[in-house]
Amino acid sequence: MKHIRFMVMGILFGITLSKGEIISWYRIQEMFRFQSFHMFGVIGSAVVFGIITIQFIKRRRLKDSEGNLISVSTQEPGYARNLIGGTIFGLGWAITGACPGPLFILVGYEGWVFILALVGAILGTFSYGLIEKKLPH
Amino acid sequence: MDKLIDFIQQPWPWWVSGPLIAYVMFSLLYFGKGFGISTNFKTVCCMLGSCKVSDFFCFNWRDQIWNLMFIGGVIIGGFISSHYLTPDPAVAISQATITDLKAIGIENPGTSYLPAEIFGAENIWSLRSLVFLLGGGFLVGFGTRYANGCTSGHAISGLSNLQYWSLIAVVGFFIGGLVMTHFILPYLIAL
């Protein structure tokens, strides 16, 4: 099972976001009220280290473990999709106090209650897939 | 060894968590994978047969098994943290946040990770809790697919890669979060 390594990374990620209190509903409320530096420090330092890492990967033309050039792009162009989609996501983020990573972590941290939130998220994704072609992108 | 465990059991400061998140992203890139958690919702739809109703869900979900393993690990990480690494669940949020949340009806802000009156198992079948979990989850799942990414794909990977459209998506995340927090949330808590 070569995929076990991804499970190990997931465990590290789950512990990091739990111990960093990023899964706390209160920390997300504090962030959207601009009342503490904590969450901005977490995301900001992740991005600063991420920029350095990705610049290093690009300049050195680093290859992944299978010998392919590492590529990063995750974006789809379009103001409508990114702004409207992002805003809908943000509305949900402030309610649950958790983006998708923390939603999964909270199933382990808090218990089955958060399976309901995952069901909601899967229904939301399913609904998007149903009406995708009718939406502006 | 005891000292190390004591240290790990404290809340981790931002300058420990943030760089570790970047490290996880780098590890995934090194093994040829992109950091994107919300993709798993789409994968689950695909596995449940949604391809029959929308070709948005027609792809080979087996290519995403690594990601399902990743979120399996993520759930285990949450379990390990709550059972072995967090003897004191209090979250040291700012006094201003405590005051604001008390004013909109949260009883003991910061004494644990989540407000028990909303997310506690004993209250879960109330209208309010269902709105927070199912409704909030729905918006997260819909919005993340519409924007083609969540915090991991856009805020962390996208901004790290200096992607313009990810910045626009993150601006959207904050527009939605601010509108919800300041204009709608008090009404949802009052449900």
Describe the protein in words:
- The complex is a heterodimer of chains A (137) and B (191).
- Chain A has 137 residues and is mainly α.
- Chain A has helices at 4-19, 25-32, 38-59, 79-96, 100-109, 113-131.
- The radius of gyration of chain A is 18 Å and the shape is globular.
- Chain A starts with a helix and ends in a 6-residue tail after the last helix.
- The mean pLDDT of chain A is 95.
- Chain B is an all-alpha fold and 191 residues long.
- Chain B has a domain at 1-87.
- Chain B is globular.
- In chain B, 49% of the residues are buried.
- The mean pLDDT of chain B is 95.
- Classes of the chains: A mainly alpha (137), B mainly alpha (191).
- At the A-B interface, helix 1, helix 2, helix 3, helix 4 and helix 5 of A face helix 2, helix 3, helix 4, helix 5 and helix 7 of B.
What are the key terms here?
heterodimer, A: 137 residues, mainly alpha, 6 helices, B: 191 residues, 9 helices, globular
- Count of helices of chain B? 9
**Percent range for helical residues of chain A?**
55-70%
| Number of DSSP-assigned strands of chain B | 0
Helix content of chain B: 55-70%
What's the β-strand tally of chain A? 0
Largest sheet of chain A: none
Name the chain pair whose interface involves the most residues. Answer: A-B, 113 and 129 residues
Indicate the radius of gyration of chain B in whole angstroms: 19 Å
CA distance, first residue to last residue of chain B: 48 Å
Q: Please state the structural category of chain B.
A: mainly alpha
Average pLDDT value of chain B?
95
Taking all Cα atoms into account, the compactness measure Rg of chain A is: 18 Å
* SSE order of chain A, one letter for each helix or strand: HHHHHH
Portion in strands of chain A = under 5%
Q: What coarse outline of chain B follows from CA principal-axis ratios?
A: globular
Output mean pLDDT of chain A.
95
Main sheet of chain B? Answer: none
Q: Can you count the helices of chain A?
A: 6
- Content-based structural category of chain A: mainly alpha
